[in-house]
Amino acid sequence: MRKIMGIFLFITLLTLTACSGNANNAATEGASSTTVSDTGLSSGTASDLTEPSPPKDLPKVAFVFATPIGETGWNFEMDRGRIALEKELGVETLAMDNVAESDANRVFEELAQNYDIIFGTTFGYMDAIVTAAEKYPDVKFLHATGYKTLDNLATYMGREYQSNYLVGIIAGKMAKNKKIGYIGTFAIPEVISAINAFTLGAQSVNPDVEVSVIWSNTWFNPTAEKLAADTMIDYGVDVLAAYHDAPTILQAAAEKGVWGSGKDSDMNKYAPETYLTNFIWNWSPYFVETVKSIIDGTWKTGSYFGGMKEGITDIAPFGKNVPQDVRDLVEAKKKEILGGTFDVFEGPVLDQTGAVRVKSDKPISDEEILSMNWFVKGIKGEIKN
User: Fold this and answer.
1) DSSP class of residue 317?
2) CB 33, CB 83: distance < 8 Å
3) How far apart are CA 255 and CA 349, in angstroms?
4) What distance separates the 2 farthest-apart alpha carbons in the chain?
5) What is the DSSP letter of 123?
6) Can you tell me the distance from the alpha carbon of 169 to that of 326, in angstroms, rounded to the nearest whole number?
7) Cα dihedral sign for 189, 218, 383, 226?
8) Are strands 117-120 and 140-144 parallel, antiparallel or unpaired?
9) b/e map 59-83, b = 16+ CB within 10 Å
10) Do 315 and 276 meet the contact criterion of CB atoms below 8 Å apart?
11) Mean pLDDT by 10 residues, the chain (385 residues)
12) What is the pLDDT of residues 138-180, one digit of tens each?
């Protein structure tokens, strides 16, 4: 917002009049921007008048996505956070999608010549963003799901496993034949911990449930996703969950009358009769607070790991056919998570071999969650890197 102060001095009377105008937000496909300047002047006698402080220069912020932003999913929710950032702080932002991991280094370095803050939004950008951060120390870089930090490079991730535990409770209650399928993208810690939490949630209400996991090895490939869904459905699962942005797997399950769960966004509209729920993201709080701290000069590097309590992750509204008693179970457990009285990976937790991975007297650490490379007992499938 641009504030214009007008001051008219008369011989014996001082009158101060202020008027405000509005700045426009412009949004185009792949890029949008807002510019803001702000000056202020206090009223008083002529002897009190001083020059206003110059407005702070607002940073330019870029977001880089590996796949299309789309209408649902991880990128879509990230971009909603970007738009919220524009509206709340008035900063100029740019969104670039379809940036392949192989081309990420070039893109990051080109953006660093014109932007002050750069958000990388996928794990596969890690090495490229580290290289760019080393070359441009005055630019702040934020990387989603990675684990490498520098003085000007921080990482951010959400505790999606908390929400996925709740989704697992619903899946466990709805799996009458005790068979659940889960289609993973890549065998990386964030996906593994989400699948483990989902399984623990299902087991909490259906101890003998079997969760079968297969990997699509893609973030976005409708053909491969449909093939994986058909494979699981042919196996006879009652519930099919997936770690995929597109609704392909959810729709495939609906076609065969199988309960389904999506990812990242509310996907109810894609399968209204068979939809259960899924974990969802809200990145606005993190994006706004992070950029604010950079503007204020209080930002420090580190690894952010926000959860349900911080409003970063939650579950979508229940599907219309989820029974009320199941909803009540989920809401009760959600209150425990929010209140800090329940930890998803509360020990003892056993892995597929029966070995104790989390002891009852020693809570799992964030570092262990963020580097998880094992499946809990009850999962049928392998972790293939």
Assistant:
1) P
2) no
3) 36
4) 90
5) G
6) 8
7) positive
8) parallel
9) bbbbbbbbbebbebbbbbbbbbbbb
10) no
11) 35 36 35 33 35 68 95 95 97 97 97 98 96 98 96 97 98 97 95 98 97 94 94 96 94 97 96 97 98 98 97 98 98 97 96 96 92 97 87
12) 999 999 999 999 999 999 999 999 999 999 999 999 999 999 9
The answer to whether residues 312 and 327 touch, using CB atoms and an 8 Å cutoff, is no
Bridge partners, 358 (sequence order): 349
Predicted TM-score of the model (pTM): 0.83
Q: How many CB atoms lie within 10 A of CB 30?
A: 12
Q: Which two tokens stand for residue 244?
A: 């995929």
Question: What H or E segment, with its residue span, contains residue 330?
Answer: helix 324-339
239 CB contacts (<8 Å, ≥6 apart)?
171, 174, 175, 179, 180, 181, 258, 259, 260, 261, 276
Answer for the pair 194, 362: CB distance below 8 angstroms, yes or no.
no
The predicted-structure confidence for 309-333, as pLDDT tens digits, reads as follows 999 999 999 999 999 999 999 999 9
- d(CA 95, CA 91) in angstroms, rounded, equals 13
Tokens of 175: 């799996």
Between the CA of residue 291 and those of 11, 59, 65, what are the distances in Å?
46, 8, 19
Query: CA-to-CA distance for 184 and 186, rounded, in angstroms?
Result: 6
Integer Cα distance of 42 and 295 in angstroms: 24
What does the block give as tokens for 271? 């399968």
> What DSSP element (H or E) covers 356?
strand 356-358
Tokens of 72: 């649902």
Alpha-carbon separation of residue 339 from 74, 138, 204, 309, 333 (angstroms): 27, 40, 19, 8, 10
Q: In this predicted structure, what is the pLDDT of residue 55?
A: 54
The CA-atom distances, in angstroms, between 356 and each of 118, 190, 291 are 40, 20, 41
DSSP secondary structure letters along 240-254: EEE--SSSHHHHHHH
Q: What is the model's pLDDT at position 134?
A: 98
Cβ atoms within 10 Å, residue 322? 18
